[in-house]
Amino acid sequence: xxxxxxxxxxxxxxxRYARALTGDSAWADDLVQDTAERALAxxxxxxxxxxxxxxxxxxxxxxxxxxxxxxxxIPVDDESAPWRNxxxxxxxxxxxxxxxxxxxxxxxxxxxxxxxxxVCVEELTYQEASVALSVPVGTVMSRLSRAxxxxxxxxxxxxxxxxxxxxxxxxx
Amino acid sequence: xxxxxxDPAVPKPPDLQALSAFVxxxxxxxxxxAVLERLVQDPQAAAQVADWRxxxxxxxxxxxxxxxxxxxxxxxxxxxxxxxxxxLAACWxxxxxxxxxxxxxxxxxxPGGGLLDRGPxxxxxxxxxxxxxxxxxQRHPVEVAASEExxxxxxxSKRLNRPLSVPSLQEYGYSLVGGRLxxxxxxxAAQFMYENQDGARLTLYVTGIxxxxxxxxxxxxxxxxxxxWVSEHMGYALSGPISEGKLREIAIDxxxxxxGKPESWQ
Lengths: 172, 266
Prior knowledge:
The complex is a heterodimer of chains A (172) and B (266). With 172 residues, chain A is mainly alpha-helical.
């Protein structure tokens, strides 16, 4: 499979991740578009035999952070927050529980949200997540456990969300 | 992938990172066993792990639309993907560059129409130009290589609309490299290329000729010589940078090989 075809084959997964990360499907589409564009333009920078998916996720992440800085930050409790308009998930878990979970997820600082999504939803190994996030494996582990505890606290303590706006926050 | 450089020792309060890695199946066997033991004795840690597991599957339910099971998910993209447009543009660029490469030298070698008048002289000139253009090629001297000689002959015969044969020049030390199709004056032309052990190349240029003039002439351009003749509405030109006598000898042989009458040249 050539490079372009391989990039294209990852687009659905990138899109899923971008949706989860941004909570905004239109934004996610733009993000995936930009990511693919940049990846194909910079294919020379990709080391063959390394993990293409992690590389793509890194590009997507950098673009997201750039765009996050550029956009006006959206308070999570805002009724018009984009993630509120995502389709209500169906199936396994109770919809109400998922609403809470969704709210909690977007209360997390980006660093915690992204690692949680990469490992729990995208099922990256710690090693792959460390490549995608450009941090050591140890950092992946510590961020992840903090993210889990943070989520748990948010879900048990109720909907009060301290770090209201979506923004990049250093680890507390 | 296992993560090995972590200290598996379980401290007094539950090691959150170890529990977390346990949930994700990222612990080496030994550390995993230690966590399992801990969970049995420590209800708080067990509750934590159960919570995180529930969290993980809930996150999957929330965000993890299975991309493979839902092909509809894949198709939701911009109507005309940009990469297709870029790809198409790139293709045209390549085609354009290729044409410029192929036709550029030809064009510069063929100023005006004077030299391209109909008649043997015209096709001989074209043969000479084609020699100059293609014999220096190292990587793509021919379109179809001699290894596919049968296909080469079938193809060029079809395009020139008459049965062609490729004379062997082995006895002169030249073996066939292959051939290519070229635009001629009055339709397509074929160029067969030969090469000897020293890498010197000869070409045999074959094309249809409207008039049937029997002729055998020599044409010179720089150190290249081209012997050309016409036989049964076919023009042949043998070009190469070798001595006139030698080229003439080969040409006479080629001519009789191809059903011509070289006796009439004497």
